[in-house]
Amino acid sequence: MITFEGNLHKMSTALASPVQYTLTLNEAPVDMNKLVGTPITLSFHGRINCINCGRLTKKSFGQGFCYPCFIKAPQNAECIIRPELCRAHLGEGRDVAWEKKHHLQPHIVYLAQTDAIKVGVTRNTQVPTRWIDQGARKAIAIAEFPYRYLAGKTEVALKSHFTDKTNWRNMLTDKASDLNLKTFSQQVAEQLPADLQEYYLVDESVTEINYPVEQYPAKVKSLSLDKNPEISGNLSGIRGQYLLFDDGRVINIRNHSGYYIALTVE
Length: 266
What we know:
By secondary structure, the protein is α+β, with helices and mostly antiparallel strands. The chain has 7 helices and 14 strands.
């Protein structure tokens, strides 16, 4: 029996077949793929640290922040969720230096098949990490822009044709049918506004993504460490940032960022 302790952060990933997952606790890397098919226990005793400033917080906001950082930190600005509101290209934002580093950089608009075909925005340096974190089966970049605002403007234009949300329950039961993303990508060229046509990517290939899952559940039940401070079971797989247990229970690791836990492996 081995126990690892530390504050949770989202699992790091590497594109392989299947995706390679690593959970780091107190600087100790845990190869999560090796744990698939074995019993594990997650134990939480009430300690939460802000992932931005490190202070203790009774409640986590926005996937790991204390309330002051949730209100003030640039990582929680409105343009994170709605990139069309980004003002980095105007030299504005909660933290101009942070905006310049993260949002005044090349961004892509992509199509990903999670449970359905969704449109999304991410920095080009976050490909394919962003797709893996969303649990996409396949994805394709469809346009590249010099900064975030233009990518957000394009996403808005495409929302009438594609969803921008993922039904996580359908994704974790793997109910989506196989769809041809290349065909959808070619249709986008006709749907882009004239002033954005120049950013369309013509020859992009589809990225196929496989996950370390032994068997998908027919039905899922989401777990929270706040309500279930000790979670034990056989780990049957990992997809997106979710751990899947063989009885259909699932837990989103990223949603518990900052929680100090013990991971016991039998």
